[in-house]
Structures are given as C-alpha cells and as structure tokens.
Write a structure and sequence with these properties.
single chain; 178 residues; alpha/beta; Nucleotidyltransferase, domain 5; 2 domains; 34% helix; globular
Length: 178
C-alpha cells in the first residue's frame, strides 16, 4: 500500500494477486509515457558520489540516450573528479551534451531527465552557469536552447543510477553509440 501512496505504482486489479508484477508493469508504463513527449531525443543521467572506507572520494557518472521511439542511441558510464553529488550530476549532463553536439544528433531537440531536483530547477531557471571549459564544443551553448531539463523519480532513473555507481568503480569513462 505504501507504494501506491508514494505514487510508485498504479492502482490496479492485479495488485493483490501479483504485487511484483504490478510494480514492474507500473514502472514500465510510467517510463514509456516519457517517450510521448514532443522531442527527438530523451536522455537519462545520474551521478554517484561517496567517500569510501579509505577516505577517498568515489564519483561516477552514467546515463543513456534514446530516440523518440525508445531506441537506444548512446550509453555511458565512468569515473569523474567531482566535489559533490550535485557536481557529478552536472558532469553527467555536460558529458551527454558534448556527445550529442559532436554527433549526427546535433541540433535535435532533447529532454534530459535527472533525479536531482536542485540541478533541474537551476537549469530550468538558467541559474546554472556553465563554464565554457566544461563543454568540448562552443556550439554546445546553441544546443542548450533546444534542451529541456526535467525531474524524474529516482525509481524510474534506476538504469542511469546503476551506470553511475558502476562508473565510480571504473578506471575511465566508457561510452558506446548503439
């Protein structure tokens, strides 16, 4: 019942007979509804940041990009130097924007989902100032006008979250165009 109260699942007839199936079905339905947006590309990013038992910062980014039909275009995961969890999320956004700008997808409209409400609000209100050195291509600023930033529930952003956590343990950033 708490899943329903937290709006993690839909209220449906199979809840009492198959709760696990209901949870998985709800998550899939909620994720697929994101692709009904009027955008060419949809990106999901996350950052992972923690201090290890050896008192070392472990930070990673991860995410993926899909087209409007839900086809996977790009996946990435790897370590970053970051001072905070918010800094990790920011670096994940910059990484994704850099990859889009340097690809055939340049100039397309894009929605980028993050589970960081602070970062999303800052981007939406243009309070977040991006240092040009963070972006590999000066044309990235032009692209930002076609990018929309939206908040997503952490539950729905679990794939990007796992990629970020795995990325914190890697030696270098890995990415693949699909």
């Amino acid at each position: 019942m708490w899943c329903q109260a937290a709006n993690l699942i839909d209220d449906g007839p199979t809840w009492k007979t198959n709760p696990i199936g209901m949870i998985l079905s709800s998550r899939k339905k909620r994720l697929s509804s994101l692709f009904n947006a009027n955008s060419d590309l949809i990106g999901f990013i996350d950052g992972a940041w923690k201090i290890s038992e050896e008192n070392k910062i472990q930070a990673g980014i991860g995410g993926y990009l899909k087209d409007a039909k839900g086809n996977l275009i790009l996946v990435f995961s790897g370590p970053v130097l970051a001072s905070s969890a918010s800094d990790c999320e920011f670096r994940a956004i910059c990484f994704l924007i850099n990859k889009i700008v340097s690809s055939q997808w340049r100039g397309k409209s894009c929605i980028i989902y993050s589970d960081s409400i602070v970062l999303v609000k800052d981007f939406q209100q243009s309070k977040f100032k991006i240092d040009q050195s963070e972006l590999e291509n000066s044309n990235s600023f032009i692209l930002l006008s076609k990018v929309e930033f939206k908040k997503i529930d952490r539950v729905l952003n679990w794939e990007a979250g796992n990629l970020a956590k795995e990325g914190a343990l890697k030696d270098k950033i890995l990415f693949a165009w699909c």
